[in-house]
Amino acid sequence: MIDFGPATAIRLVAQGYAAVGFLTALAFLAFGLARLDPGARGAYGFRPLLLPGLLLLWPLVLVRWAILARAPARNGLGRRFSGTHRAVWMVLAVALPIVLLGALALRQSGPLEAAPVRLSAP
Length: 122
Hints:
- The protein has helices at residues 6-36, 47-56, 58-70, 82-106.
- The protein is mostly helical and 122 residues long.
- The chain has a domain at 6-73.
- The chain is elongated, with a radius of gyration of 21 Å.
């Protein structure tokens, strides 16, 4: 029987989020970056540097990509994202401390709780 506790649930959600982020990042780097930023056409050296940010912010990337697909004639997206940015920052401001505090509360043992062990040479 699988022990499905809170720590396992948090780990599975984080792994799912990372997997979707990885797939979104690969698709965006292959097909969407050149459409979103015309200066990125042919510049393949910096694309791997974008991967960590795309992994974490993939929902925002998908929103921007969808808006660009509806209005391809616009070069800059401008102020249309001020409300979206505000909402993303509010969600992050609430979700990140909850995840951090949850991880601290659910940890099994830390370095302060364990008794010191004397190591000896074999």
